Structures are given as structure tokens and as C-alpha cells.
Amino acid sequence: MALRRLAGPAGLLVATLLLSSCGIFGDKDKEAEPKELVNVQNQLNVKRVWSTKVGSESEFLLVGLRPVGDGNRIYAASHNGNVMAINPDSGKPAWKSDLDIELSAGPAVGEGVLAVVSTDGFVVVLDAATGIEQWRVFVGGETLARPLIKGDFVIVQTIDNRLVALARFDGRQRWQIEQTLPVLTMRGASSPMLVGSVVIAGFDNGRLLAANIETGDVEWDAMLSLPTGRSDLDRLSDIDGAIAIVGQDIYAAGYQGRIASLAAESGQVLWSREISSHVGAAADWNSVYTTRDDGEVVALTRTSGVELWRNDDLLRRDPTLPVPFHTVVVVGDFEGYLHFLSSIDGKALARVRLGGKAISSEPMVIGNRLYVQSDDGTLAAYEIVLQQPKRKAPDVSKPADES
User: Fold this and answer.
1) pTM for this model (two decimals)
2) Which H or E run includes 29?
């Protein structure tokens, strides 16, 4: 887990502490060690369709780079400034752009453009068809959240608790929302999401809000994770992970707080459970999935939050958010493994390895394929090959039954 300490009204960066996810909580070395993997007899035929190199590794900076698709192409970016459009069938690049800057978040795609964000606070927008840069604008802070592109807007959330709306055509700032910033926060930011014409965003002070995309007016503001405790460390309550939306229901999780379902139109909490997570929430039509801060994977019923199952196979292995894929959920870990768990009971059904470097960002699902990017800039596509039952051919040598 990475922490950053901020001080003063401007929220200046004073220090960044790179700590293991359990090292600050456990005194015994053995308790802080990642759990060893047990052998898994693969019950699924997981096939790697292709892999390609996007760029160089991110050097454990916990950047927010992960692939995205628009139905025609897959887009990916690397920490050293490469942005690529990739043919989803072959894995071959349609175009590649070198922006000559270090990137920390993206890409996002929509309305014919692609957006990435640099570590020094520049938003760069490219033409999605050609990769030609259209504009770059300084927003004053790093972001680890994927931008949101909709209509005439590019929405960016920075790590200093600001939500900034830029004009899609030229990058002019249209509006900005700023939340109070705690003294100590985790390094990260949740990516803004859209429900109708409302932007949903979570912040490091534990608040979740909805803002009108056209005006920036806040329609509701809810406290998801209430800071508690005496020390700054105890009061960490960041909403840094993914926000899931199914219909008009929002699912979000906070660190040292709770996972909750909220109504998109009002922000009313429909149900909540005391679960601490910094990777957020994922959902399908039946269940909500999250990974606790200790690495335990948890599934809850989507409508009521009743716990369905837990899997502790990945304790202290820095697992990603579980992503629904077919009848399983897929989780990456710090050694480059992909774990395929049953969405029904959480049992391990298969395991494959992308490479030796960590998978820090959750996989992405488009159609029947899973796309995964590791921290060394490798992007791969996977499929689950379904076993078709063999049909027995009729024995034409025997006469038909005339009875």
C-alpha cells in the first residue's frame, strides 16, 4: 500500500511512503509474508490468444494504466509515454504514438477521441482513429484515475481531491469541484463514472458525490466511509477503487470503511457492509465483488449485500479487484498470476501466469475476451475455451427400427 502525507491549505506533497499492504499493521514478519499458492487443477481451458508489448514497466509507482476498448479496437498506454491502438483479433497495432512524457492514468476512449494523463498533470487528447494529438492541457495535479469522456466533456479526477471538467474540443476548463483533503491519504483515485447525465465520483475524505456533467452542480453528496480513530493512519477512509454501476444502483467501497449500494438518483444508501477495500467494487447482475485490504476476495448478493462466499487463497498477495468473466471472477496478483474463481462459491478453477511482473490494475472484459496489462507493459488477451460435448454419429450400417 502506498501512502502520501499532505500538509497546508494547498495540499502540498510532503512524503510518499511505499509500504507493503500489511507491513504497517503486523509486527510479525511471518504474518506479513504473502500466502503461498497451492496447486490448482485447472478445470477451465484458459487460452492466451495473443500478447504484445506496450512499453516499459512502471517501476512500482502504482499508476492507473489499463486497457480500454470501443468495440473496434483495444487501446493501451505505458508509463514511458507510449499509446497504442490494437486490433483485438490479432494483437497487432493499428497505430502507435510516443508522447514523450511519463503517463500515470488512462487511456479513456469515447466520442472519437482518446485521453491519457501524465505524471506531471497534463491531460493529452488524441484522435482515436489515427493517434494524432489534438491538445494537451495542464490540470495542476497528477491523477491515477481513468478520465471520463462523454459528449463535449473530458472529466479528470486528480489525487488532490479535485474533479475537473474540460471541453473535449480544446481542453478549456468548464467547471471544477474540490473536496477537503485529509492530512494522510493513500496513493490512488477512483475513476469517475456516468449515470445518465450525472458524474459519480469518490474522494479521499470518504465522500461519494453526483454532479451534473453540464454544469458541475452537485446533486447529492454522501459519506461512504466515515473517518474514525485518533491517529491520521486510523482515520484513512479513501475511496480509491473502482465504482460499479448496474442499472440505477451504485456500488462503492472505502478503505477502513464499508462497501455499500447507493441509489443513483438520490445517493440514499440501500445497504452497506463493514468491509475495508482500496480496490473498490465490481458487479454483475447477481453479485458484488471486492477484495479486502488483506487480500481476501469477497462476494455479496447485489440486491441485499448478504455475503455469499470468501476466498483467502490470495492473502497479502496484493490481488486486484475481482472482475466478472463468464461464470468466474478473475483476479491478478503481485507475481503476475491470473486466478479464475467460481462466481458461485469462490473456489479456484484455474490459474495462468502472464509474466513475472505484478498485475496491479484489474483486467478488462469485452465480449468473450479478457484483456490484462502487467506492470512491465505487457498486454495480453485471453479466452475461456468451452468444451463442446462430442456427438455420437449414428451407425448407418444397421437397418432402421421398423417397429
Assistant:
1) 0.86
2) helix 29-32
Domain with 102 in it:
2-385
- Specify the CATH number for the domain of residue 380: 2.130.10.10
The answer to whether residue 400 is domain-embedded is no
Q: What is the pLDDT along the chain (403 residues), one digit of tens a residue?
A: 555 444 333 333 333 333 444 444 445 556 689 999 999 999 999 999 999 999 876 655 567 899 999 999 999 999 999 999 999 999 999 999 999 999 999 999 999 999 999 999 999 999 999 999 999 999 988 888 999 999 999 999 998 889 999 999 999 999 999 987 655 455 667 899 999 999 999 888 888 999 999 999 999 999 886 666 565 554 455 677 899 999 999 999 987 778 999 999 999 999 999 998 889 999 999 999 999 999 999 999 999 999 999 999 999 999 999 999 999 999 999 999 999 999 999 999 999 999 989 999 999 999 899 999 999 899 999 999 987 665 665 655 555 554 4
Asked if 252 and 281 touch (Cβ cutoff 8 Å), the reply is: yes
Cβ atoms within 10 Å, residue 319: 26
Find the farthest-apart pair of alpha carbons in the chain and give their distance in angstroms, rounded: 94
Question: What is the amino acid identity at position 63?
Answer: V
DSSP 299-348: EEETTT--EEEEE-TTTTS-----EEETTEEEEE-TTSEEEEEETTT--E
Euclidean distance between CA atoms 397 and 403, whole angstroms:
18
Q: Looking at the domain assignment, is residue 131 inside a domain?
A: yes
On whether residue 390 sits in a domain, the answer given is no
Ramachandran sector of residue 367 (left: φ over 0; alpha: ψ -120 to 50; beta: rest):
left
Spell 110-120 as b/e; 16+ CB within 10 A means b: beebbbbbbbe
Nearest to 114 by CA among 136, 92, 93: 136
Residue of 387, 301, 303 lying closest to 344 (CA atoms): 301
